[in-house]
Amino acid sequence: MEAMDDDSLDIKDDHNHNICVSSSGKVRPYLRSQLSDATTVPQPVCLPVPAGEPGTRRRNVWSGNTGGSKFMDSDSGSESSEVSETDCTAPPVAVEGKFTLDSTSKFLLNAMAVEEYRKNHWPNLEKAIDRLLIQNPTDHISVSYAQIYSYVYKCVCQQHSELLYNDLTLKITSHLQQVSSHLQASPPENFIENFNVVLTQYTASLQCIVPVFMYLNKFYIESKLNRDLREDLMKLFADHVAEKHVNTLMPLLIKAHSMPFQVQPSTMASVVKGLYSLRPDWAQLAPALFSGFIPQINPPAVESLLPDYAAHDQKLQMELSMNGFPRGDQSRKRASDDS
After folding, report:
1. DSSP assignment, residue 26?
2. How far is residue 215's CA from residue 228's CA, in Å, rounded to a whole number?
3. Mean pLDDT score, 32-61
4. Is 25 left (phi over 0), alpha (psi -120 to 50) or beta?
5. Calpha distance 157→228 (Å, rounded)
6. For residue 140, what pLDDT is reported?
7. What is the largest CA-CA distance in the chain?
8. Helix (H, G, I), strand (E, B), or coil: what is residue 252?
9. How confident is the model at residue 235 (pLDDT cuts 50, 70, 90)?
């Protein structure tokens, strides 16, 4: 009876038919011939299944103090192919290391990813940016926005956000420097109109560039730099174009503002509002000019200065009348009390 009890405590079978050794460390006689004579038998170690092989079944490795080791299939309990001694005696870190990349492999993969970025991703993005920057607002250029969006998405997923952001800003900076050089050669009588064309064209280009770089803006510029892509690109225009020509542009705007319709009102409004959006402090260079297009530029009205405001309005009406702008039909106007 004792012999039967001893055998019953040796090996237990769980609900998955996995053969396990009891806490007493005893094994059945038919297993003793295959395992070592150690007094204790270690618990089974499960090898991780390599990535890419989801269908591979887990196997339990029985490793003794001496001798070889064998797999026990977790489904059938049958013996499988043998494992080398080095695999059995190696520590768990070494076994797991078979399925992880060392530093050299990671470096090589990163170098391959950067090479792919330089050869494929960025050249295609650069071509698309060139076409978007030189287009006119009324022109239609065939550009695959889905393809650009896909390239940007891949670059961000492959940890090339910083590289992509630097290339993008360098590309646009180079373009703006060329624009500034061409604007420098403009004659004074066309300078305001040419500046308006440059500003309008660049603003329209950003309406296409910023959306397709949405992933770069969201996962790098906003999250890590705490900035916004459109604001950064508009700042590039202010630094490399507007700031270099503001001293030339401002006197021309003041002169055009004093001579009504010398420049189209829509052009004047576009340039003045554009300058104010780039650098609000530029309004202090010509408050009278900016107050005609931007509200609340001048300080609040003071009751004691009402006569001065009325005199200024009368002077403006007189200047308009002298420049050929009549006040219109006054016959229907109600007679004043002084008449």
Report:
1. -
2. 12
3. 42
4. left
5. 19
6. 62
7. 138
8. helix
9. very high
